[in-house]
Amino acid sequence: MLQHPQIDPVAIAIGPLKIHWYGLTYLVGFLVGWWLGRIRARKPWSPITEAQLGDMLFYIALGVILGGRFGYVIFYNFGAFTSDPLMLLRVWEGGMSFHGGLLGVMFAMWWFGRKVDRTFWQIADFVAPLVPVGLGAGRIGNFINGELWGKPTDLPWGMVFRTAPDALARHPSQLYQFALEGVVFFIILWWFSSKPRPRMAVSGLFLACYGVFRFLVEFVRQPDPQLGYLAFDWLTMGQVLSFPMILAGAGLIVFAYRRNAE
Predict the structure, then answer these.
(1) What pLDDT sits at residue 262?
(2) pLDDT at position 94
(3) Residue 55: how many other CB atoms lie within 10 Å
(4) For range 222-241, the mean pLDDT
(5) pLDDT by residue (tens digit) across 1-60?
């Protein structure tokens, strides 16, 4: 049995100014995404130039933050929002949703595509391989905060989290998600997108892989206390939101290759 390292969530404090590790992980994700984006922008088949990359990442950053916060409130904590609408603005209290962030990023990519005269799928296929780095960094932030821990387990790497309501060893599900959504996901997408693919194929693989990884991890992740299980004593909101991603991703891949073969 392991003990969760009690890391102060505040990385730097200068008087009243506090910089949290969670915020720094987002910064790391965007900086590495920018560096990887420069590599992709130099490819002859890139839909955007290096000069356009900064603007695109700005749009995406807004989509992540606004979509992630709105998604968390709507999908996971709508009851609290109805009684306290200002909670939507208190981002420092935590609460971001990947699925909401995805919707925000999709809107941002469409908006940016219109600005540079590119289609949504051209931008989406370019951006998809950059995302796992940010996802992985965010899961490290979750681990540092001691949040989103998993179910009790007797496995030797079970971990006791001081933020949990008991002293039970639990799955360090944030690290599982870091490994799957960050490392493995990045390797798959970067390899697949390293040469030209039919339009929509990279985006389809992104949706399918993330949906599968998230659906699986939800079996060992503690469900959100305000929601619990939605059905069958195992179905979570994360799985409900991920299943359509799997279907949509598989459909996009099939459609992309069939259209390319015609």
Answers:
(1) 60
(2) 62
(3) 13
(4) 88
(5) 899 998 988 888 888 888 888 889 988 998 999 999 999 999 999 999 999 999 999 999
| Residue found by looking up tokens 């991920």 in the block | 242
DSSP state of 19: E
Burial grade of 232 (CB within 10 A; 0-12, 13-18, 19 or more): exposed
Q: What is the pLDDT of residue 20?
A: 85
CA 188 to chain centre: 16
* Helix extents (H) in the chain: 21-41, 50-71, 78-83, 98-115, 120-127, 131-145, 173-177, 185-192, 201-217, 237-261
Token pair 């560096």 in the structure block, residue:
35
Query: What is the side-by-side order of every strand in the sheet holding 169-170?
Result: 2-3, 159-160, 169-170
Secondary structure class of 197 (helix, strand, coil):
coil
List, in order, residues 6 or more apart from 82 with CB less than 8 Å away.
none
**Half-sphere exposure in the Cβ direction for 98 (13 Å, CA):** 23
Residue whose pair of structure tokens reads 């905060």 in the numeric block: 145
258 is annotated as contributing to ligand binding: no
pLDDT at residue 97, as a whole number: 81
Cβ-contact 180, 172 below 8 angstroms: no
Q: How far apart are CA 174 and CA 64, in angstroms?
A: 19
Of 185, 192, 186, 191, nearest to 212 by C-alpha is 185
Residues in the chain: 262
Q: Which pLDDT belongs to residue 81? A: 74
Q: Model pTM?
A: 0.88
Residues 63, 106 contacting (CB under 8 angstroms):
yes
The answer on pLDDT for 122 being more than 70 is: yes
